[in-house]
Amino acid sequence: MGHPMISKSAIADLPAPAPRSGDSATLAADIIERLTYSIGKDAKVAKPHDWMTATILVIRDRVIDRWMASTRKTYEDGSKRVYYLSLEFLIGRLTRDAVSNLEMLDEVREALQSLGVDFDAVAALEPDAALGNGGLGRLAACFMESMATVDIPAYGYGIRYVHGLFKQQMSDGWQVELPETWLSHGNPWEFPRRESAYEIGFGGSVDTIGNGSDETQRCIWKPQERMIAVAYDTPVVGWRAKRVNTLRLWTAQPIDPILLDAFNAGDHIGALRESNKAEALARVLYPADQTPAGQELRLRQEYFFSSASLQDILRRHLQQYGDLRTLPDKVAIQLNDTHPAVSVAELMRLLIDVHRMEFDPAWDITRKTFSYTNHTLLPEALESWPVPLFERLLPRHMQLVYAINAKVLRQARKERGYDEGQIRSVSLIDEGGERRVRMGNLAFIGSHSINGVSALHTDLMKQTVFSDLHGLYPDRINNKTNGITPRRWLMQCNPELFKLIREAIGDDFMDDAEALSALGKFADDTEFRTRFAAVKRENKIKLSNLVARRMGIRVDPSALFDIQIKRIHEYKRQLLNIIEAVALYDQIRSHPELDWTPRVKFFAGKAAPSYHNAKLIIKLANDIARVINNDPSVRGLLKIAFIPNYNVSLAEIMVPAADLSEQISTAGMEASGTGNMKFALNGALTIGTLDGANVEIKECVGDDNIIIFGLTAAEVAERRATGHDPRGIIESSPELSQALTAIASGVFSPDDRNRYGDLIAGLYDHDWFMVAADFDAYAQAQRQVDSLWVDEEAWYRRTILNTARVGWFSSDRTIRQYAKEIWKAGP
Questions:
Q1: Is 185 a catalytic residue?
Q2: CA distances from residue 171 to 514, 615, 623, 628, 662 in whole angstroms, order as listed
Q3: Range scoring the smallest mean pLDDT among 212-226, 426-440, 656-670, 807-821
Q4: Closest Cα to residue 348, out of 404, 410, 428?
Q5: pLDDT of 749-778, one tens digit each?
Q6: Is the pLDDT of residue 562 over 80?
Q7: 288 and 213 in one domain?
Q8: How many CA atoms lie within 13 Å of 523's alpha carbon, on the beta-carbon side?
Q9: In the chain, how many domains are there?
């Protein structure tokens, strides 16, 4: 007997629950109620993690009221929805973010205080969501918060990683990768949505039915392997809770969790192979792809979340509007980098094979719906997949890629007169060596808009990786300089600075970050500078305490805090910073009579598990730190600390404590950067190259309030094209030569004197990242920093002007530009 239908008319007559009150007394009572009835604990025996969960559930109730109201509003007014597809969402801890954006921070703090519980201690217990790695994922998180803030209906789509990238520990200075366990005790912020489940296929064959005369010929994909994508939703609260949007993350489940016949026959491992295959999809972010199995898993992940997301988008659109021809009018899909680029082929498959459209109208809808954000000029970072792998895993999509390619190449040859070289450049198939499917080209060709993330990056994109595609589609590339949310990266991570600014200029900047410009006049106010410096010192003490507690390293908060935090990569040039530290170490010992500026160099960041040189750079930083930190002749004037397991929560402590922000990538290689914006907003001076968004930061803060050094992107390109002599450069620089000799000869690695030989030899042989080429300019810029630091009044004048002048780099501004110029969505 079936279940009786639920009467929708009866539901419609039910009264809506009253919105939850936000006063502290009600909050306190609700926390006790949740502690008792949701967690099953008496307050007298509750542990800190119980209080954390109860508090989150009470806050979540207040979020749900606004979440449902936002969803109803979008459905009723027919607003265009934005869907942001990203393999990473580095959202960090959500409790303080939600409470702050609900404007209930004081009330929640008072409620917990009345129960004898400290809010800050409870919020610190929440694990960082291990859903991303670096800037790409944090940008997606900032964008989600800003879309809710500026009232754009949006969904973020990604994967619910069980272990994320990895937890980084140090063993004798080497990076060790351990699994993150952020979900081991559940996630009170998320809601499982078992009704939002979609079948995902892999492999198999493609059959053709119909003879083209009595019915339209159609392709039927018969996957060999199938699994189910199941949704988990997390609410994303905008500032002042104007809107609450949804982050929908997918996990994989097998269709048959256990092969019972095999299990009963004694094959206990084989019986679980379908479960293991499904679970592997959502285990780890960026599985190492140096093996064929790793490549296959990564492609599976990308198709899995892209297909589930698109099926969900089409289901929602058909449910509300009933006609997929209106898709571009009501839906905008943003591809965050090339990871979801297979979505172009998947939407074509769904429109043609499932919804029976012809190729040309399906292609028109696809291009009008998608837009693509490029994040890199590195050709190797623009994903491509071996044709045999792609064809074996996604046979129908391979057919569609060839069909799209044929259409594009005919257009390039006939309409634009492209020659063979240009045809090879724009093709979706790379024919040089092993044939590969180019995902960057697929994302470009399948989108109506392709944006860079800084002015320089966008110009270089037109000239380099996409020059021929730009020639074919000259109206598609545009710039949307990245931004950061000032709620998390000022209000929440630096509450004392936030209060000081609010006292000085009022509340306007809380809704419009560019109103921070009013702070500029306080740069010459002696009392304000003193208070600004006092806030900075308290933030430095907090970081000093963390380093002492975690690493046993004692640092002086009066020293200049020089910080470089980002992914460990040769183009980001942590190596340049480390070599300069060695040169400075030599100078301090050689000239003890000089007045050296006390300095602490902080590093943090993860190296990809298979990236040998990046992991070697981490080991080098730790080896050098061990020597310098324990050398009494340095007299504590220079210390180095590499803090393990960099994540959002660590950044929230390090960013407010920085005096100097290291943004020293090889010019032309950093697309934008957002760490540069966070540091400047929190009152740090930037030392950097003219790369990424540094160019625009320089324009905003003024030449006197940033320290720029080194080759420009054009000069780097010229040297690479014409050749340069790194050996001659090194030999003509005594400081550089001496530092490199010390590193290469094993001064810092007495247990293995050859450890860094090859790393340093690479600088002599080719110096692709221009470390040697920029060293003298960098060292000179650092001595300029020393001289600026001596004049405390002038230093804090500059840092205040940085905070005052970088409001333009709010992600609210960026999102409004996307909404107006690309998505055609929002108010």
A1: no
A2: 45, 12, 12, 19, 26
A3: 212-226
A4: 404
A5: 999 999 999 999 999 999 999 999 999 999
A6: yes
A7: yes
A8: 21
A9: 3
Domain that holds residue 731: 557-804
Catalytic site residue from 60, 317, 375, 601? 375
For Cα atoms 821, 825, 827, give the angle at the middle one, nearest 5 degrees.
105
Q: Over the Cα atoms of the chain, what is R_g? A: 28
- Give residue 513's identity as a one-letter amino acid code: A
Catalytic choice (339, 572, 599, 619): 572
Marked catalytic residue, from 138, 567, 599, 816: 567
pLDDT, residue 362, reads 98
Residue 358 DSSP label:
-
How would residue 277 be classed by pLDDT, with cut points 50, 70 and 90?
confident
The reply to whether 567 belongs to the active site is yes
Catalytic residue list contains 414: no
89 with 112, same domain? Answer: no
Q: Is 766 a catalytic residue?
A: no
pLDDT tens digits along 339-390: 999 999 999 999 999 999 999 999 999 999 999 999 998 877 789 999 999 9
Spatial CA neighbour of 372 closest among 429, 276, 447: 447
Residue 697 pLDDT > 50: yes
pLDDT value of position 817: 98
Whether 597 is in a domain gets the answer: yes
Distance CA(144)–CA(234), nearest Å, equals 11
Q: pTM above 0.85? A: yes
The rounded distance, in Å, linking the Cα atoms of 695 and 667 is 10
Whether residue 171 sits in one domain with residue 267: yes
562: left (phi over 0), alpha (psi -120 to 50) or beta: beta
Residue 697 lies in a domain: yes
Q: Is 600 helix (H, G, I), strand (E, B) or coil?
A: strand
Q: Which residues share a beta bridge with 168?
A: 177
CATH number, domain with residue 743:
3.40.50.2000
Shared domain check, 163 and 70: no
The DSSP code sequence of 9-45 is HHHHHSPPPPPPP-SHHHHHHHHHHHHHHTS---TTT
Dihedral sign (CA 87, 92, 94, 98): negative
Confidence of residue 261 (pLDDT cuts 50, 70, 90): low
pLDDT of residue 442: 98
Look at residue 214 and tell me whether its pLDDT is greater than 50.
no
Task: Work out the pLDDT band at 17, boundaries 50, 70, 90.
Answer: confident
CA-CA distances (angstroms) from residue 714 to 470, 667, 718?
20, 8, 6
Quote the tokens at residue 539: 């933030």
Q: Report the 10 Å Cβ neighbour count for 105.
A: 16
Co-location of 142 and 251 in the same domain: yes
Catalytic residue among 338, 458, 485, 674: 674
Structure tokens at 347: 């939407």
**Token pair for residue 687?**
């030392």
Q: What phi and psi, each to the nearest 5 degrees, are found at residue 155?
A: -120, 140
Which DSSP letter does residue 533 get?
Answer: H
**Residue 392 known to be catalytic:** no
Structure-derived torsion over alpha carbons of residues 616, 622, 627, 633, reported in degrees to the nearest 10 = 120
User: Out of 678, 797, 798, 805, which one is annotated catalytic?
Assistant: 678
